[in-house]
Design brief:
It is a single chain. The protein is built from eleven helices and nine strands. It is α/β, with parallel strands linked by helices and 314 residues long. It has a single domain (77-313), classed as 3-Layer(aba) Sandwich (Rossmann fold). The strands form two sheets. A seven-stranded mixed sheet has the order 3-2-1-4-5-9-8, sandwiched between helices. Helix 3 (50-64) runs antiparallel to helix 7 and helix 8 packs across helix 9 (250-264). The structure holds S-adenosylmethionine. S-adenosylmethionine (SAM) binds next to loops.
C-alpha cells in the first residue's frame, strides 16, 4: 500500500472501518501464546489481563492510523529477532557500556510504529540508550501504552521524521541524525512504495548509517517468488486511481541495494534470502494441499514470502 494513502486520512475514510479484511477482531490463540510471557515479564501485566490489554492498545493505535500491521497484530511479531544477523546485532549492542547515555553502537528502528523490535532488544539485554525508533507519525504514546515502559523508554527514544525529507530540510529530526547509526532496521517498510520511491528511501537510509565498516541496514518485508508491481485497490487508493507497490524476491531486493549503493558511492556487502520458516510453511502447503482445495486467500498467498536482507558497509 502507499503510505500516503494511510496518512492524514479523513475521519470517515473507509480504510478506518474495522470491517476491512486486515482488522482482526480477536487474537489467534497462537499469537497470544507467543507473546504472553513477554507481556507478563517485560510489561508487568497479569496473565489473565494480557489479551484484553493488547486489544485495547491495538484499538488506540488503530485510531492513529489503520495500518494492516496494527489491524492484523503484526506488531506482536519480533521480526528482527528472527533475522539471521540478530545475534551479531544484539551482541554488538550488549557488549558496550550500559551507563553511556550516547553509546557508540546504536540502532534505529525506522518506521517503528509501536516499537516491538526495540522492546525485544531491551528484553534480551541491549542497553536502552542505544535503542531509538523513528516514524512519520506519532505512535510514541501508543507504544508506551502497549508496553507500559515509559519508565524505561523515556521520551527522546522516538524521533518523528520523514525518510523522504529533502536534503535541505532543516526541520526534519530524522534527517539531522544522518551518519550516526551503526544499525538501521526496517521492518515492513520499503514494500509500502513503488520501486522508484523504494530506491529514494533506500538511498536516504544509507545516508543514516555511520561511515564505518560493519555499519548495517537490516530488514524484513513482504515479498513474492516472482518480483512484480502489485496494483492497489481501494481503500488503499481512490476509486479509479492507478497505484502500485513493488514486491521483491531475493534477487531484486539485493539488486535494489547494489544499485542504490553504487549510485551513492557506498561500498557494501548485500545479502537477501527468504524467512526460512515462512518459506517452508508455504512450500509444504503447495506440495500437500491440492490447488482446488485452497481457499481464495490461501491461493493469493501461495507465492507470498518474507524477504530478509542485510546491507553492510565494507
Ligand atoms: C507497515 S508499518 C511497519 C511498522 C513496524 N516496523 C512493524 O514491523 O510492525 C510502516 C510504518 O512506516 C511508517 N512510515 C510511513 N511512511 C514513512 C516515512 N515517509 N518516513 C518514516 N516512516 C514512515 C508508518 O507510519 C508505519 O508506522
Amino acid at each position: 500500500m502507499s503510505s500516503n494513502s494511510l496518512i492524514n486520512l479523513p475521519a470517515d475514510s473507509a480504510a478506518r472501518s474495522t470491517s476491512v479484511p486486515w482488522y482482526a477482531e480477536q487474537l489467534e490463540p497462537n499469537q497470544l501464546a507467543e507473546v504472553k510471557l513477554f507481556f507478563i515479564q517485560y510489561s508487568d501485566i497479569r496473565p489473565d489481563e494480557v489479551e484484553a490489554h493488547i486489544l485495547r492498545a491495538r484499538d488506540a493505535a488503530w485510531s492513529i492510523s489503520p495500518w494492516p500491521c496494527i489491524g492484523e497484530f503484526w506488531f506482536l511479531t519480533f521480526s528482527l529477532s528472527r533475522h539471521p544477523a540478530y545475534t551479531h546485532i544484539l551482541d554488538t549492542l550488549r557488549f558496550q557500556s550500559h551507563n553511556d547515555p550516547n553509546p557508540p553502537y546504536k540502532l534505529l528502528d525506522l518506521g517503528t510504529c509501536l516499537g516491538q523490535d526495540l522492546r525485544k532488544l531491551a528484553y534480551d539485554g541491549a542497553p536502552i540508550p542505544a535503542l531509538l525508533g523513528a516514524d512519520l507519525l506519532d505512535f510514541e504514546a501508543a507504544g508506551h501504552a502497549l508496553f507500559r515502559d515509559l519508565d524505561r523508554f523515556t521520551r527522546g527514544h522516538y524521533i518523528q521524521g520523514n525518510i523522504f525529507a529533502a536534503d535541505d530540510d532543516a526541520e526534519d529530526k530524522l534527517l539531522k541524525t544522518r551518519g550516526s547509526w551503526f544499525f538501521v532496521h526496517v521492518s515492513m517498510f520499503l514494500h509500502i512504495w513503488p520501486l522508484e520511491q523504494q530506491e529514494e528511501a533506500a538511498a536516504n537510509i544509507l545516508k543514516l548509517l555511520k561511515k564505518e565498516p560493519g555499519a548495517m541496514v537490516i530488514g524484513t518485508q513482504t515479498g513474492t517468488l516472482t518480483a512484480k508491481n502489485d496494483k492497489l485497490e481501494p481503500p488503499f487508493c481512490r476509486q479509479g486511481e492507478e497505484k502500485y507497490v513493488y514486491r521483491h524476491n531475493c534477487e531484486s531486493m539485493a539488486a535494489l541495494w547494489h544499485r542504490v549503493a553504487d549510485a551513492e558511492g557506498v561500498k557494501v556487502d548485500v545479502w537477501a534470502g527468504w524467512n526460512a520458516e515462512h518459506h517452508q510453511k508455504m512450500e509444504k502447503i503447495r506440495r500437500e494441499v491440492p490447488y482446488e482445495e485452497l481457499s481464495d486467500a490461501h491461493r493469493e498467498q501461495l507465492d507470498e514470502r518474507k524477504v530478509v536482507f542485510s546491507v553492510t558497509r565494507v
